[in-house]
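pls ignore typos typing on phone
coenzyme A + seq
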Amino acid sequence: MNYSRIAGTGSYLPAKVLTNRDLEKMVDTSDQWIRERTGIEKRHIAAADETTCDLAEPAARRALQAAKVDSGEIDLIIVATTTPDQVFPSTACLLQQRLDIHGCPAFDVQAVCTGFVYAVAVADNFIRTGSARCALVVGAETFSRIVDWSDRGTSVLFGDGAGAVVLKASKEPGIISTHLHADGAYESLLRVPAGVSKGYDLVQEGGAYTEMRGNEVFRMAVTTLGRIVDETLQANGLQKTDIDWLIPHQANIRIIQATARKLRMPMERVVVTVSEHGNTSAASVPLALDVAVRDGRIQRGETLLMEAFGGGFTWGSVLLKY
Ligand code: COA
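k done
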């Protein structure tokens, strides 16, 4: 029986920083409102000519370096993104080309903010069944491209970035379990209601933006994330105290605090980057993971719970020994 284990992590943020003060000049909002309701202080925004693959590449290279893995060893590439560079080829194929990797399967996964958790679950299954031995899994977004910068209800929340992990086959876990869910019935609460085969004129005119009923999404996220935590612990016969670190999707500090309370985890054991990065969708969990690995908080052998919730709705978790 193979397990998959995180061999290395990496991340990358675009240089441009947009602060709450900057947003005060763009919409009717205030630094105080944004901090109090979301915990966000600033976010990074990709330059006009910077694409999702441009963010994914340095994150992937850093993960490869941390894992001490040569790009030639990679036999599976999955990129989780809501904001691919092009309709096709997939961002995973574009990344494969940049890394000079040839022949292995490469594809994108689209589950919005849960995308990275979905992608890790897929890669873990490839490795468990022996179909891959060394996978590169990336969450990368230029979410700023699908934000209406005149809408104060959404523009203050999102940012751009990328995070990556290298997963290697291992005799020991590694990833202990993954739990994925979706319910398309909630489409109207959170969506970009245009794309390629519907509303393409909107896309061409630059009017295909994220629509959200924030309050309802907030309530669903809190309830659903509480449930996924219980499901994950129960599936593995674990107690709340067995979790060393919670690495939540970084959407809103109040959602993160509610999940931590449910786990009875002190906030010192929760990795929080939402203040610095905002909500970077599929990039948020691997970005947070990389920050806490590199600053020495997360140590080998510790038990981590990653969880996310996003458009679809989609939600899921990954329980692992780092
Ligand atoms: N600045 C100032 N005021 C704002 C504002 C902003 N950026 N955005 C909304 N408001 C106003 C509203 O217009 C409303 O005013 P009103 O009472 O006069 O109508 C008031 O603030 C309260 O709005 P409400 O939407 O009820 O606030 P909230 O406490 O629910 O906070 C969110 C709004 C968006 C921060 C919150 O709902 C949220 O985080 N939702 C989840 C978002 C999310 O995580 N999405 C991604 C999931 S992956």
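The pocket of coenzyme A is lined by residues 29, 33, 37-38, 113, 152-153, 156, 212, 214-215, 217-218, 221, 251-252, 279, 309-310 (CB under 6 Å). The mean pLDDT is 97. more later
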